[in-house]
Amino acid sequence: MGRALHLPALAAGAPAHRPARAPAPRGAPRRERAARGRGGRGAVTRYQWLAAVTVAATLVLIAIGAVVRTTGSGLGCPDWPLCHGQLIPPAERTAIIEYTHRTAAAIVGLLVVATAAVTLRYHRGDRALRNLAIASLPLLALQGWLGKETVERELPPEIVTMHLSGALLLLAVLALIAAFAFLGPERRRLEDPRRAVYLRASISAAVMIAVVLIAGSYVVGADATEACTGWPHCPEAPAPFIDGLRAQHIHWMHRLLVAAAFIAVLRLIWHAQDLPEADGVLRHAAWGLGALYGAQIVVGAANIWTDFSSAVRAAHLAGAAATWGLSVLIIAGALYLPGRSAGARAPAALPGERDAARA
Description:
Blueprint: H1 2-5, H2 7-11, H3 30-38, H4 46-70, H5 93-122, H6 127-152, H7 157-183, H8 193-221, H9 246-272, H10 280-305, H11 310-335
Helix pairs in contact: 4-5, 4-7, 4-11, 5-6, 6-7, 7-8, 7-11, 8-9, 8-11, 9-10, 10-11
């Protein structure tokens, strides 16, 4: 009897004085058990990878959408979901660009559904993740419908702006899912007045960045991109909202909102310097947001300097989406501290794992 009691420990390769590692939950696939055995501190789990890849793919989709807009390919496929009545688009430049965007949208749609399914299957106990996953599905459906309406109504600026706004909202939801996945199921709030001030500043910066993006989308949709041919001045309307026509007024609105958002980002960087030493990541993130936003201003000015090059305009729109995504991640980082189990041995997506998030 005594020898038999030691057989499980010896079979697992564990010394007699050290307890054997707990087995994976019943029903876990063999590959998941292997992942649990290999994962050390800081290991990235399959669920975290899925969430991160979904965010990255969404950014790529927005970048392709920017190419569609700046090259005038929005009606390269005048019907939906087919292209000129065909499953395969004709060998024409605008049709290929638009169909590439639709194909990328289909791939992102599958990734969003997969992320939501895994979240609801294995992380239903995490209220924040569960609610975000549920919210992502109607947002995805709304985006598909807005894409169809954009084509069928021949690119009205209001629908185009709503389509981009929906994409940014979906990106924010996916970024929060990824952030919470990496923070771990035991993430916790820290009641610190300095963090509270930083959180408010990060929310203000994110809201202003979103307003700038929506205004910029309307500028493109209203054909006001080339309304001002100088930077930072506007020769066609030196006095904002006094000189010039409607197109110049719309263009000036975007520029002034850019300046207001820049002040909000600088305020975030200012408050980041008051954070404790342990919050170095948040300080660096604020500086990173400032650098990215500053680069966006330069690229925006380069639109005029390069005579509104399609490549520069596409880079401007794609960079704007990345700036928005980073601002959302900063909010998540300011809200929570990583849980003790974040990046620990058991992957977040292990079947049977019970999350106990404090959301």
